[in-house]
Amino acid sequence: MVSANPGPPKPEGLSRRAFLMAVAAALMPSCSRSGTDNGSGYRVWGGNGFRDGLFVRPRAICANQGEVFVIDMTGRVQVFTEAGEFLRCWTLPESENGTPTGLTFGRNGNLLIPDTHYSRILEYTRNGEFVSTWGSYGTDQPGTVTKRPAAADADRVSPGRSPSGPMAGGDGTTMLPNAGNGIRNTAPRSGDESGAAVDGRLPENHSDRRDDVRFVYPTGIAQSPDGLLYVSEYGMGAEQVRVFDATRRPVHQWGNHGQAPGQFNRAMALAFDDTAGVFVADTANHRVQRFDPDGKLLAVIGTPGTAPGQLKFPHGLAIAPDGTVLVVEYGTHRVSQFSVDGNFIACHGGPGREPGRFNGPRGISVSAGGTAFVADTDNHRVQRFDYRAAGSHDQAAGTRSQ
Q1: DSSP 132
Q2: CA-closest candidate to residue 309, choices 384, 230, 393
């Protein structure tokens, strides 16, 4: 049954930007229900809203050790079982300018989040405890300006507005996640004496600057088999992939703006296969590029278009345990499946609201068991499916512009 949601009141601490987006979305009809399955093999959870288990345009997703981590436009990191059961939640320190477009786990077991519109990388434990942050706004290109511009692109708003904070209780306390059971406890608003963060916020005595590491808009992050960190990035003078060692010291980088092979136009995500091949979602060039760890171009996957095997605004990608490359396309509301060599295998989905259909999806992750999880962004939900069984070349017509 389709019902109109009048929209919830604004929770304390939510950014004005995220609240206005949520209210607009809430006024649209919604048919998502947690855990629904129409027999297609797709399992759906979420729906539009601020409560635990609901989303406002989820866009970053990562499956790890039986849990699924999702970041939506309110700046919340929500954690679920692979069946969609809500476990816990915390809030990122700021989200007024925009929210992260990707996340992954490092080899140390911590969650790494490219905080795209704040030009830094955030690191948390899987239970939401703050570990570190590194990076500041700017580029390493000679002659470039390192002052952060206001409203630099369509995803940004004026940074003069106050940033969002964590969800707060009426008694002056801040809500914290309790690891593993989804129950929030209370704690003082500021960081404690140990320097730990409270509900995802940076402690008062913390500095997030490191002068030798600057980003414009970092979008994706992945760790190579030998421990190096690879970060995709876009922005003026920063259409590239950056590589850092375990101490976060820059090692090398490659790429620049353009349409030629090896160049980028909004590199929005990256991932490794088991041979250390680096796959980059070159979003506005409508393709995926595969490199060796040193940046040598090995293959270009996809051509611009909407036919099966073509790509339109690929926003996210994931490499399955069997080497399959899964690409989520914002422009065609589907997931396209390729071999590691770039041969087209199948596409999944198409535009719509029912299970098995997508609306502007932006993120994808694959579990160790081979289950795919999609951030079905404009349907305000997550969809889970077995990509090995659900493929279809019969996609309903419908595309969109970014």
Answers
A1: E
A2: 393
Between 372 and 401, the higher pLDDT residue: 372
Q: What is the pTM of this model?
A: 0.77
Using CB atoms within 10 A of its CB, is residue 207 exposed (0-12), middle (13-18) or buried (19+)?
Answer: exposed
Residue 117 CA neighbour count, 13 Å, CB half: 23
In DSSP terms, which residues pair with 240 in a beta bridge? 233
Q: Please give the single-letter amino acid code of residue 212.
A: D
309 is written with which tokens?
């095997």
C-alpha distances in angstroms, 158 versus 17, 95, 126, 198?
Answer: 10, 12, 31, 26
Helix or strand run (H / E) with residue 19: helix 16-26
- Give the residue, 3 or 334, on which the prediction is more confident: 334
pLDDT tens figures, 143-198: 333 333 343 333 332 222 223 333 333 333 333 333 222 323 323 223 333 333 33
pLDDT at 71: 98
- Taking the C-alpha atoms of residue 109 and residue 119, their distance in angstroms, rounded to an integer, is 23
Phi, psi (rounded to 5 degrees) for 376: -85, 80
CA 178 from chain centre, in angstroms, equals 23
Contacts of 254 (CB under 8 A, 6+ apart): 240, 241, 262, 291, 294, 295
Q: Quick one: which of 46, 200, 197 has its CA closest to 113?
A: 200
Separation in Å, CA 317 to CA 142, 250, 300, 349: 32, 24, 14, 15
Torsion of CA 75, 76, 82, 88, to 10 degrees: 160
Instruction: Decide: 69 and 87 in contact? Cβ < 8 Å.
Output: no
CA distance 98 to 152: 11
Residue 222 CA to residue 4 CA, distance in Å, equals: 40
Residue partners of 26: CB distance under 8 A and separation at least 6: 5, 6, 7, 8, 48, 49
Q: How confident is the model at residue 330 (pLDDT cuts 50, 70, 90)?
A: very high
DSSP 51-92: STT-BSS--EEEEETTEEEEE-TT-EEEEEETT--EEEEEE-
Are 356 and 349 in contact, with CB atoms under 8 Å apart? Answer: yes
